Amino acid sequence: MIELASDEGDPANISERNEDKAGILKALSSLNRKEQEVVRLKFLHELSYKEIAELTGLKTGNVGFILHSSLEKMRQILQEQAAARKSNTLSGAPRV
Amino acid sequence: MKTIHDDTRLSAYLFDELSLKKKVKLERELAENPELAAEMEEIRCMESKLREVFEKEVKAFSLTEEQRQLSTNKIGEKQGKPDFWPLIFTTLFNRPELSFSCALLLVSVVVFVVNDMVLVPALVESKSVPKHLEMAVVLSDTVGLMENLDQQA
Question: Do A24 and B53 touch (CB under 8 A)?
Fold first, then answer.
């Protein structure tokens, strides 16, 4: 069987993935405590809205809202990070 | 004003939290509305990134297969050899949690029986006070008497 060339081990890709991960963790830390708790319960423990509601004392509808708004917030933060990175690359400034 | 970004149905759809009816309705909307479909794609992308990060974190902190096997074996060994009292009460009543209280009850009954049926009758039957106890009583009486005399003097 022929193995296709993989770019997984490519240092540039590894560095990019690490940056992505760091960016996501940073975005996650920018959420408030309740939002972080809900996100962790969903993604780390794979709980349903109902289970999260039982654990946190929130209403099921609120869990959905918090989760959705957390994803939106994080998406915006990641977009801002990407834009900042792009402008730094264009201006030749070193990466932070 | 509610925007397309506030539509919580999109994330609920991704997490399979919508009822069948709502799911079908949203799928129809997604097919008709490219803006909504693009928003859905953005959220899906964010969700998969987050999932990937959390999966890596979980892997980093979870046991290796070898460690997991080892701990499972140890737990199995422990479960295979229950303690004496739990074993007795599991065998007799299928209630291992009763073992301590039942053991205590059993000991109390044994103590009561020995005390009531062996020691007390033996004491009653003997009736006589042992010699050394007699001597002790006489001695304490004498000491008491002498103290009284001293005080009166």
Answer: yes
Whether B103 is covered by a domain: the verdict is yes
Per residue, the 3-state secondary structure of A22-91, as one string, reads HHHHHHHHCCCHHHHHHHHHHHCCCCCHHHHHHHHCCCHHHHHHHHHHHHHHHHHHHHHHHHHHHHHHHH
Query: Which residues of B touch chain A, with CB atoms under 8 Å apart?
Result: 5-8, 10-12, 15, 17, 42-43, 46-47, 49-51, 53-54, 56-58
* Structure-model confidence comparison of residues B114 and B136, the more confident one: B114
Q: Identify whether B107 is part of a domain.
A: yes
The whole-number pLDDT of residue A1 equals 44
Could you give the number of structural domains in chain B?
2
CA dist., res. A58 & res. A60, Å (int): 6
User: A67 to chain B nearest CA, in Å?
Assistant: 8
- Which chain B residue is nearest to residue A28, measuring alpha carbons? B50
Dig out the tokens for A86 from the structure. 């792009």
- Collect all residues of chain A within an 8 Å Cβ-Cβ radius of residue B53: 21, 24-25
Cβ separation A78–B11 shorter than 8 A: no
Is B17–A48 a contact, with Cβ atoms under 8 angstroms apart?
A: yes
**The domain A28-89 is classified under which CATH number: 2.40.340.10, 1.10.10.10, 3.40.50.620, 3.40.50.970?**
1.10.10.10
Least confident of B9-13, B18-22, B94-98: B94-98
ipTM of the complex: 0.74
Confidence of residue B137 (pLDDT cuts 50, 70, 90): confident
